[in-house]
């Protein structure tokens, strides 16, 4: 299943939505498309909605952490709010924050997407992050793997 993304340049926000059992390659390719997308700029915040995705394995997490370290320049100084559905996903996300070792990316985990949006809002993100529920984000607003 895909990893969808949307970029709101005015709010400096990238929204990622994982649906189903996305592979690491699908996740990586979505991020690479974000980085090469003309509206994206270093320092944009990220809202990652993993509530509809499968729990990630330790190997997947290790690969995510390595990717994040390799692309720290593209991320820049930003916030990454990761919304998970359960404690198993929470454990995996915590492992990622430990393994990544990113000094300029502030990562927080949430079970509540509204709480994640409020946290991002404090970093300068406004209307989209606080008003658009994840189910409203349709294909017109999200990048899709080709």
Question: Into which percentage range does the β-strand content fall?
Answer: 15-25%
The total beta strand count reads 5
Structure classification: alpha/beta
CATH architecture type: 2-Layer Sandwich
Shape: globular
CATH superfamily: STAS domain
- Identify the quaternary structure here: single chain
Q: Major β-sheet, in short?
A: 5 strands, mixed
Uncertain runs with pLDDT below 50, 5 residues or more? 125-146
Task: Give me the Rg, rounded.
Answer: 14 Å
Query: What is the CATH level 1 assignment?
Result: Alpha Beta
Helix share, percent? 25-40%
Q: CATH topology, what is it called?
A: Transcription Regulator spoIIAA
The overall average pLDDT, rounded, is 78
Distance between the termini: 12 Å
Query: For the largest beta sheet, what order do the strands appear in spatially?
Result: 1-2-3-4-5
H/I helix tally: 6
Order of helices and strands: EEHEHHEHEHH
Question: Can you put this structure into words, describing what you see?
Answer:
- The chain has 146 residues and is of the alpha/beta class.
- It has a single domain, classed as STAS domain (Transcription Regulator spoIIAA, 2-Layer Sandwich).
- 40% of the residues lie in helices and 24% in strands.
- It contains 6 helices and 5 strands; from the N terminus they run ββαβααβαβαα.
- It has a 5-stranded mixed sheet, with helices on both faces.
- β2, α1 and β3 form a beta-alpha-beta unit.
- The longest helix is centred in the middle third of the chain and has 14 residues, at 87-100.
- The protein is globular and about 30 Å long.
- The two termini are 12 Å apart.
- Mean pLDDT is 78; it is low at 125-146.
